[in-house]
Amino acid sequence: MSSLKRVQQWATFARIWHIYNAAWQNPFHSSELIKKYLMGMYKPIYHPMNDCGDHVIVINSKEIALPGDEWKKRVYFHHTGYPGGATWTLAWELHQKDPTMIMKKAVYNSMDGNLQRRYTMQRLHIFPDENVPKEFLGNVTNEIKQLRPMPKRLDCYPEKDVKEFPKVIDYPEDYVIR
Amino acid sequence: MVFTTALNFVRSRGPDEFWRKRKIFKLAAHFIGRRRNCYSIAIRNVHRALVYATKGRQLKKEDMANLWETRVRAGCEQHDIPYDTFKEGLTRCDILLNRKVLSELACWEPYTFKALTDVARRRAIDDGLKGATSSNDIDRILTRGSLNKT
């Protein structure tokens, strides 16, 4: 095997690190996207028994957006195994306890239940905010595009830009801005 | 099951219990435990195994088709063209490759696959199919539609 071919093979089978910003994203739609990168299904060499999955770092999982009234309606079930050990936790309660759990469960449930699933999950790293360890960030070479673009809020613009933005009308003197 | 002599096969259908059971035990030879040694258990498991084998013949085809499609979709995504547009573009160019061949090209011959996506993209843009974005690579490709336009 020539050195070129050897390097080509390393490059083909190397694990890549992706980063995904989960702020204002639907976790259940995002999980389908993340799953594709975790399992390596975006590579033409994909095979279920071929270990070609990548690492994905999910940041800002605290800021995920559930659709509709799912914060109040979605229920997470857990059973300790003992009689009477069943608990039902609402999504907002679970999110208060652990802001990474909803994202983690969404990705876990999006994959088929087989022996590989738990090992695939080990390559998923979720962080509630942007504080990612340096040694993780140093590996990242790709950013996964967000499903929905994040609009910039008005209070995030500098005050100067807001004031200088062209206006269509001036408010009347006696107009009450609430 | 392999019969070395036709004589043994004729025997195995007959009333002789030994040869009748032997046919089943041969099919159960790779089972574990009493499944391979006790006839009444072996026959049950052989029947089950034959059912699995029958179903498996169809499942294997479906699994392979799914794998090919996953691979071709991955290849299309790398070259930024939707799968449906890619297939439609190739069909309109009379490039009638099936998913198996396309997946093998995507896996083993990435440059060939890229050329195919370029052809499909050129055709998609000329025919106004949705989802095809223009790039510099397709300027060197001519289709009948693009000749008519200029």
UniProtKB/TrEMBL annotation, chain A:
One of its GO terms (cellular component) is mitochondrial large ribosomal subunit. The keyword Ion transport does not apply. The keyword Chloroplast does not apply. It holds the Pfam family Ribosomal_L13. GO terms for molecular function: mRNA binding; structural constituent of ribosome. Keywords: Ribonucleoprotein, Ribosomal protein. GO terms for biological process: negative regulation of translation; translation. Belongs to the universal ribosomal protein uL13 family. PANTHER family: LARGE RIBOSOMAL SUBUNIT PROTEIN UL13M, RIBOSOMAL PROTEIN L13. This is 39S ribosomal protein L13, mitochondrial. It comes from Callosobruchus maculatus (Southern cowpea weevil).
TrEMBL record, chain B:
InterPro entries: Ribosomal_bL20, Ribosomal_protein_bL20_C. Keywords: Ribonucleoprotein, Ribosomal protein. Pfam families: Ribosomal_L20 (PF00453). GO terms for biological process: translation. Signal peptide: none annotated. The keyword Ribonucleoprotein applies. The keyword Chloroplast does not apply. One of its GO terms (cellular component) is ribosome. Gene3D superfamilies: 6.10.160.10, Ribosomal protein L20 (1.10.1900.20). GO terms for molecular function: rRNA binding; structural constituent of ribosome. NCBIfam families: rplT_bact. Belongs to the bacterial ribosomal protein bL20 family. This is Large ribosomal subunit protein bL20m. It comes from Callosobruchus maculatus (Southern cowpea weevil).
